[in-house]
Amino acid sequence: MRRADRLFRIVQFLRMGRLLTAEKLAEKLQVSQRTIYRDIQDLQLSGTPIEGEAGVGYTLRRDMDLPPLMFTRGELTALVLGARLVRAWGGAENVLGADQALQRIEAVLPPDLRTEFDSILLYAPGYRMKQHLRERLDALHNACKSRHAIAFHYTREDGEQSQRTVRPLALTFWSGVWTLTSWCELRDDFREFRLDRMAEVAVLERVFVQKRGQRLEDYLKGMEAAAAERRKLIAAGAITGD
């Protein structure tokens, strides 16, 4: 965690109004108590009105001039549901980020919205997302961003197996299933692969250069053109929309 993020989180924890010891803050932030003492001192020197002392605990003075974070109830519901969906179906890094985001939001809500926060009854159970798939999702997302080729074994729905080396472009979530959109070097074309049908996934050292006709925007244009053509055929009665 960056130090700036850690300092921000310390302020948000203290802003909740409870007296927190350095030990408790260190546990929440996964750092040493010495680091917390140093951070508290730096925040106090910068003018943040933190009160308390080592061995007793710390809190934020009530008159600290920070405006409350305001959302409509609909916006708050959407944010909480989105974070719960990410925790249920996201990668390991996404789960951590969603938890931290919810903590930050809850810490700065005014009392009436904090009550609303606890009454949102929209949930997304995440027991179907296995840990190894969460870690695979993180690895593939990083490969998409860094443009590293990946290699893996793949099993199709009909049981046919193959070895693939692809240039990962993006990840898409479809009703409980993550797929990788990529340029497949074996087929010399765009292909989508389900993450749960991959095995022995390896991110290669080779960095690929995106070429015209092989980029994500090219894939999306092709999908849009195919959808437009399908709509024309349906309108003409050539095919049904079922």
Keywords for this structure?
5-stranded antiparallel β-sheet, alpha+beta, 242 residues, SH3 type barrels, 8 helices, 22% strand, elongated, two-stranded antiparallel ribbon, Arc Repressor Mutant, subunit A
Structure description:
The protein has 242 residues and is of the alpha+beta class. The radius of gyration is 24 Å and the shape is elongated. A hairpin with a 2-residue loop joins strand 4 and strand 5. The chain folds into four domains: 3-60, Orthogonal Bundle (Arc Repressor Mutant, subunit A), CATH 1.10.10; 73-118, no CATH class; 131-209, SH3 type barrels; 218-242. The model has no long low-confidence stretch (mean pLDDT 88). It is built from eight helices and seven strands. It has helices at residues 3-15, 22-29, 33-45, 73-89, 92-107, 111-118, 131-146, 216-235; strands at residues 50-53, 57-60, 148-155, 161-174, 177-184, 189-194, 198-207. The longest helix has 20 residues, at 216-235. The strands form two sheets. Strands 6-5-4-3-7 form a five-stranded antiparallel beta sheet. It has a two-stranded antiparallel ribbon with strand order 1-2.
Tally of strands? 7
Number of domains: 4
Residue share in β-strands: 15-25%
Give the spatial strand order of the biggest sheet. Answer: 6-5-4-3-7
The residue-averaged pLDDT reads 88
The amount of helix comes to 40-55%
Specify the CATH class of the largest domain: Mainly Beta
Q: What's the N-to-C terminus distance? A: 49 Å
Assign the CATH architecture of the largest domain: Roll
Following the backbone from N to C, one meets helices and strands in this order, namely: HHHEEHHHHEEEEEH
What are the low-pLDDT stretches, counting only 5+ consecutive residues below 50? none
**CATH topology annotation of the largest domain:** SH3 type barrels
Roughly how many Å is the radius of gyration? 24 Å
The number of helical runs is: 8
Q: Biggest sheet: strands, sense, closure?
A: 5 strands, antiparallel
| Dominant shape | elongated
Structural class: alpha+beta
